[in-house]
Amino acid sequence: MFGIVGKRIRRFSGLIFGSLERRLILAITLIIACTFGLQVVSQNRAVALRRESEELQATISMAEHSAQLMKQVLHFRIEANGLDGATQEGTAREADDLTDVAMNIGETVNAMRMDAPGTFDWTEQRYTFGNLDQVVAAVATGGETKHQALREVDRMLASAAHLQEQAEHRRDKAYASLERSTRQWFGRVSTIGIVTLVLAAIILWDLSCNILPALRRMHGSLRRLADGDLDLAVERFTLRELRPLAHALETFRRNALAVRDLAFTDPATGLPNRRAFIDAAARRIRDMAAPGGEFIAVFDIDRFKYVNDDYGHAVGDTLVQLIGERARAVLGDDALVARIGGDEFALYARCPAGETPAVLCSKLAAKVREPFDFDGFSIAVTISLGYVERGTVQDDAVTTLISKADLALYASKRNGRNRATGFTADLEDARNLDRMLERDLARALSSGELRMVYQPIYAVSDEASEVEALVRWRHPDLGDVSPAQFIPAAERSGRMPQLGAWIIERALSDLTQWPHLSMSINLSPLQLQQDGFVPFLLERCRMHGIQPGRVILEVTETVSIERNTRALLTLELLRNAGFRIALDDFGTGYSSLCMMKTFRFDRLKLDRSLVKDIQADATSRAVFDAAVQMARQIGAEVVAEGVSEHLLVKSASEAGCTHLQGFHLSMPVEAEAIESFYAEQAAAQNTETGGPASAAA
User: Fold this and answer.
1) Cα 187 to Cα 31, 37, 181, 353, distances in angstroms
2) Would the pLDDT of 21 be above 70?
């Protein structure tokens, strides 16, 4: 029987005290009940005390008036005895005094009647104190009447004494009642207050010793898990609310333990990821005190985005995996090869005897260039590499070495990709210079440090005159800065739209002074992406009164219009508006042929790298002739850039170029010298014949 009762009690207590919510509800309910009880008791006792206080005040007033009545009646008795009637004048005066005393007695009796109406039998007292005037008259008469009046006064004196005794008794009784009620009130309030304090102490103890420690332990477990400590043992809590959370934490901990090893592995290639590479390379550097031919290299896949766009991301992931395998095959098992980004790899290797990092990186680049076979097709890609030898920099931290290898990688990309570049201090200086140019370009746009120069472009078969607008920057500290430096800085810093707008405005403003000239203006790929560029350019031409047909807009293959719908649409709109479109630096990359297929250019500008060797190298001449003929087949004009000597003028003209440009023909000319320059050219042509070749000569 007791076992069943005890079991039920434990079950009930577990149901109540095993839940934080129910504990708090029970505690708050008890405190509210105690507070409500205290309020009820206080209100009841307050009402009772108020009533008893009023009764006490009435009895006190009654006692005071009864004592006063006793004194007045006694005084009346003394005055009555003293009235002897010796003289008529004295008797009248004493009778008046006695009358005053009688009136005072009457007033006191009335005050007692008002103090405690219904408390005493005032009917009897009315007969006792109601004939004071007759008593005064009888006393003043003297004789037997006076003796009867004095007996009446004695009866009044006895009645006053009795009233005083009753009033004092009632006063003492009211005092006792008020004191008893006060003690009861204090006792009940104290009891309820003690119970409330005990409950509050129990709740505080429960919070301090049970609930808060459990919450702190849970918080500690959460923080340790958040900090990556997966070896802790998650506690089993008795509070019902904490049990599911503890279970979830334990499940999370087990799952995290299961995948902790995977956190250091790239899932697509099976190679270490960036974090694993940094940790492993740092351990090798720490274990190897002195440098001994180790280097860190960073490389990525050139134009990997096109592979994903053309073949899909599944093929791209497979290609990344195959490149990782080839890298491990070339560098050996001792090398660390990791995938640290989408198409970016890092490697840590030691050069074999007789080899250098440049040789190993070249071998890797050559191996990657071999086509990768897929089901039904093959893909050929190239990689760009940057490397840094350990010991060539002061800081051997892996992150520092990776950062410097990244600088070399960017140099490989700037120089045409598909190559390896070693880190030098010049690269870091160049990076710092680029940052300074990005910072100072805003000042240059507003302070007049930029200016425009114009290089003439000569037509082979006619006398049409044309110039190419070229921007120049004279830095107050660095001197003349090459556009090849500050144009990329403007694109990186987001100031290319502002710079491009300045160039267009200044070039068109100068063109208004030369109505006999046409002008070529270079456009940045970012300008073709800019909202409102076409309306802006048309508005500038309208403001300066220039027909769009006098303007040739030059773009490079970096625009990649065959993959950029917005750029293609912008070029179409510009051409429809009357502008001529030229493809600049034709022959320097891989996208030119695709761009010619996608968009019909009005002009192709052959890069100086195709022009400079056509006299000395038959292969270069064959490539040059093929490029010219291809351009002429599609009806485009051909401009040979970089004509630096007289023999190139003849060779380019014979190959079919329609225009020539280069330092041999003319250096860039300042805007204020253009008029005099062409005046001299016209004068020379009046004395000589043979077209631009003879004029330039």
Assistant:
1) 19, 13, 10, 101
2) no
